[in-house]
């Protein structure tokens, strides 16, 4: 079924930069969100509201795509509603609130969060811009009374805009469902209430008909926050919240990966490693939530505790720098590089380097080969909404299967029970998990990996989208099921 749809996300599926003549050109963005949402917008002739980078100014036209291989190639410029932000506003809103306040707080790391009123005002102002632009997009729909009209808002950058948009739509008597998906964790009430603007965020989200999270834990944390902080009426069993005259349905809809794409490319991707040692592999955005420092130190402990394994393994870490405008992220890069240097210096021999480190992006196609040839996938976030890397690693284990080691503090860790689950905060536990994985015999590896693969193949990206739209279409039925107190 085709429906009138607006997707709203902080970033558009491309950034605009200028070529040597000063003309704007699209530079494609990759990543899970674009892979999932671009085909949806194309199929439905929908709109996409978002920011396209600092180079885009109001007097510029959005160019058409000139790259037929780009996932967002089929999105015409008339379907794009760009948000223009000054450098100063972007800094307060994005580097300030999104990355400096909300990111650490939502990942239950409140001591890293900075709370500043001027930054918060910018966050609210930017959310208002998004709300106004989305309202203009909705007004272009063919039928403003159609029940299937939908706005789908993405992630923590846009948590106060839903209620703003709801009010605009109600005043204009436009029928349109609002849905929200949070890609990162929603923390417990006791952490969330540290945010001086907790009420505003909850009230903002309650402008939506459907509010979805990766896991039941996050969904129930959100319900408890609405109950304790706002005093909202909640039905915990049916997962429904009522506040004032608004009713919202809450759901856990865990995201999946394009499984077949990874499996297929694992068959043809080039061989990345030309050494005989077993490879322990990690790939992440360079972010303190990903537990990369803890991982490296756990590996050091492994080499210390199990000297027989030295020269028989190599730890290969790929980390792409991100959010380099934020000090904590710059410090993390320095610290990681110091630690890698120190550990290499401590254990390396003339013939063997214990850690190889690439500080860059690698293509998803090449990545399929890295995953395939790694004996151990070592994924140790201290907190992560879901973690797609764990799922991608599993999809690429096509021949002699490797072993997945994963932190239980990730959404993925809540369901991937056949992996080795390890608390990354204790180095000995990481060291012992690596040893168990290193020693694991073929039949156990195969048994565990088969079970992991069956689940991820079934609950892939398409299943996620289907379950999201099923939930959207059932909203009115769900709302009738409430028995609130
Ligand atoms: P991220 O924090 O970005 O996503 P993750 O889920 O691991 O984390 O996804 C990262 C993606 O980027 C993966 O597809 C991975 O292959 C790719 N990637 C990472 N480092 C790379 C590198 N150096 N080179 C090439 N590719 C690299 C947020 C949340 C997650 C949630 C997702 C989706 O923080 O918890 O799983 O959204 O909802």
From TrEMBL:
GO biological process, one term: trehalose biosynthetic process
Superkingdom per UniProt: Eukaryota
One Gene Ontology term of the molecular function aspect: alpha,alpha-trehalose-phosphate synthase (UDP-forming) activity
Cellular component, GO, one term: cytosol
Family of this protein: In the N-terminal section; belongs to the glycosyltransferase 20 family. In the C-terminal section; belongs to the trehalose phosphatase family.
The protein's name in its UniProt record: Alpha-alpha-trehalose-phosphate synthase [UDP-forming] isoform X1
Natural source organism: Brachionus plicatilis (Marine rotifer)
Native organism taxonomy: Eukaryota, Metazoa, Spiralia, Gnathifera, Rotifera
Residues of the full protein shown: 1 to 485 of 765
């Amino acid at each position: 079924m085709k429906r009138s749809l607006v997707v709203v996300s902080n970033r558009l599926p491309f950034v605009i930069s200028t070529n040597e003549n000063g003309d704007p050109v699209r530079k494609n963005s990759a990543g899970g969100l674009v892979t999932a949402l671009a085909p949806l917008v194309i199929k439905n002739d929908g709109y996409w509201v978002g920011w396209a980078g600092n180079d885009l100014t109001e007097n510029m036209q959005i160019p058409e795509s000139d790259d037929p291989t780009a996932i967002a190639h089929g999105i015409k410029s008339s379907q794009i509603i760009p948000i223009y932000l000054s450098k100063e506003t972007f800094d307060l809103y994005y580097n300030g609130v999104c990355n400096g306040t909300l990111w650490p707080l939502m990942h239950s790391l409140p001591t890293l969060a900075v709370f500043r009123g001027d930054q918060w005002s910018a966050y609210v102002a930017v959310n208002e811009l998004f709300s106004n632009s989305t309202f203009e997009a909705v007004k272009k729909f063919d039928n403003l009374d159609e029940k299937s009209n939908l706005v789908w808002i993405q992630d923590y950058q846009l948590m106060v805009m839903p209620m703003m948009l709801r009010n605009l739509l109600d005043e204009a008597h436009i029928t349109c469902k609002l849905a929200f998906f949070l890609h990162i964790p929603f923390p417990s009430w006791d952490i969330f209430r540290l945010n001086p603007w907790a009420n505003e965020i909850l009230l903002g989200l309650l402008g939506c008909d459907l509010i979805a999270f990766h896991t039941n834990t996050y969904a129930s944390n959100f319900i408890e926050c609405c109950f304790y902080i706002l005093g909202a009426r909640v039905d915990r069993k049916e997962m429904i919240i009522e506040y004032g005259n608004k009713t919202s349905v809450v759901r856990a809809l865990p995201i999946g990966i394009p499984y077949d794409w990874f499996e297929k490319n694992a068959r043809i991707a080039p061989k990345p490693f030309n050494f005989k040692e077993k490879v322990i592999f990690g790939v992440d955005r360079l972010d303190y939530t990903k537990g990369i420092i803890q991982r490296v130190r756990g590996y050091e402990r492994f080499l210390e505790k199990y000297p027989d394994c030295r020269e028989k393994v190599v730890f290969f870490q790929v980390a792409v720098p991100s959010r380099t405008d934020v000090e904590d992220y710059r410090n993390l890069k320095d610290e990681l590089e110091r630690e890698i240097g120190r550990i290499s210096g401590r254990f390396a021999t003339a013939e063997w380097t214990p850690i190889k480190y690439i500080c860059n992006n690698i293509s998803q196609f090449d990545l399929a080969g890295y995953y395939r040839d790694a004996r151990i996938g070592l994924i140790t976030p201290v907190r992560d909404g879901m973690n797609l890397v764990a799922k991608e690693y599993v999809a690429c284990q096509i021949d002699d299967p490797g072993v997945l080691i994963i932190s239980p503090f990730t959404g993925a860790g809540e369901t991937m029970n056949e992996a080795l689950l390890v608390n990354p905060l204790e180095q000995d536990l990481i060291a012992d998990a690596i040893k168990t994985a290193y020693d694991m015999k073929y039949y156990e590896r195969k048994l565990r990996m088969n079970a992991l693969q069956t689940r991820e193949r079934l609950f892939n990206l398409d299943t996620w989208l289907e379950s999201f739209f099923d939930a959207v279409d059932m909203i009115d039925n769900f709302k009738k099921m409430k028995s609130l107190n």
